[in-house]
Amino acid sequence: MKSSTFINLKEKGMRFVFLFCAIFSILALATITVFLFISGTPFIAKTGFFEFVFVMKWAPLADEIAYGIFPMIVTTLYVTALSVIIGVGIGLLTAIALYKFCPKKLVNPIRQMINLLAGIPSVIFGLFGMTVIVPFVRDYISPNGVGYGIFSASLVLGIMILPTIVSVSLDSLNSVPSSYYEGALALGATKEQATFKILVPSAKSGILAGVVLAIGRAIGETMAVIMVIGGSPEMPNSLFQSVRTLTANIAMGAMELRGDALSALIATGVVLFVFTLLLNISFSLLKREKNDKIKKKESKK
Amino acid sequence: MKKLIALILLTVVLCSAFILTSCGGSFDEAKIISVVTREDGSGTKSAFMEIIGLKGKSDISGVIVASNTASVLQEVESNPLAIGYDSLGYVTSDVKILSVDGVMPTIATIKDGSYKISRPLNIVYQENRVASEVNAAFLAFLQSSDAQSIISENGYVSTRENTVPYTVIPSLSGEITISGSTSLKPLMEKLATKFEEIQSSVSVSVAGGGSGTGYNDAENGVTDFGMISEAFNSEKSPNCTYYEVAKDGIAIIVNNKNTYNNISSEDLKKIYDVDAGEKAITVWAQVTK
Q1: Which of chain A's residues have a Cβ under 8 Å away from the Cβ of B79?
Q2: pTM for the model
Q3: CATH code for the domain of A145
Q4: Do B124 and B214 contact (CB within 8 A), yes or no?
């Protein structure tokens, strides 16, 4: 009798522990969201949403104070777009090569190495960018002798998001039934035609999911970007120009600014948060669409 | 055979990475100056901008923002086209210090004021405050050789000569309050700690708040001494007098490959001025040799 109540208690206790663990991450998310919005939105309300988001000038300590983050938003979008183009271009082709065109012996070593790339801390990427990519771009590529900017940042970020794109694309390519590929070959398609016309379109939604994940990483990356972007809060007119992303803006000022300027940084965080939120929503929509398709196919059968 | 090719590829990649890191390009006068500045809120930045006459202006377009002293040095060290500024005490031989209007920043030139880009670190106080024994003792300590050695050890320029050691006053006790400039605060804290060590029953409290706070607190008698990191302006606190604790030099630094050795203060202003318009200097060739 005694032992059974003990077991009962233990079970209840454990259930509570599991429940707490499950809730903990939700609590963390809720706390962060509440913190961001409570300390960020009053500032946006005070400055005015349009004044904050669409003004061109960021000068929190100048005589004429201005808290406009529009140049940073544009830079963030540019850097993300370009890095995703670089990352997806190389990553997708890498995945295809690993899937069909690469000697079988090499597939695993290459995959392992690419996964290793994912484990490198972002500050190392930043260091590499700052000491190798920026001087190289400055001396050999840039037309005006400026190494910092969107180009260098996108290059560094493109390398950083490679592992995500390669592994997700490879997984979704692998999940395409081999009969598709074989069928295409049997109909007389070449290996290349079968891959690009049949396999890649079939794996489209999985690849897209990888792209969305990569965008998320590129938007949020701070340390690597801050070291190669230059840091001037201005509108980007060229790929080779010192500019600043939203994350860099927060990281550069967080330790130095006080008062209104610090609230402006938290408000920047709110904007960034909304961006990533939208991204995640589109990600889950993509996923749902994929699941719906599969269900439809199954119901047809 | 494949292994050989892989090996060769690997060596090429490693070698090119090595070459890329070691070579840094050359100095080309026709190219755009990479202007390096510090982030908003940096004390060095506000002092520098004020001295060259650009107080309260925002940064020029294309400026590279380094978020600390070390990264200014790193950038200038690796970028042949860069110009930056840094507290003199931090500058190493990896970069070249430019003379400004023909004057190199040294302890001697900063002391006699011929090197312009330096700022005095002052304390301001009302005369009647130093009538109290403990405040007078602290002022005497600041003038002593004990204080001067702390000042020089921390990279600041001591402007006093022929100083004598501080003579300990037995049974001196009391409280000293200091507030103001955050640029002077770190040095003042070190000096205060030393003074508390010598005069064990005296306590010194040092608070920040900025130079404005320093003026106001001293003028209104809120604290015994106010700290200001600019030349004393008697209009801001008419009842006060000042004492110069030390000077802080700001060096203008460029890459070692840079062929310039001197820059005029006018040119320097034109490089950093956002409102310079057509007069703005953007390439090295525009700088007068």
Answers
A1: 135, 138, 147
A2: 0.75
A3: 1.10.3720.10
A4: yes
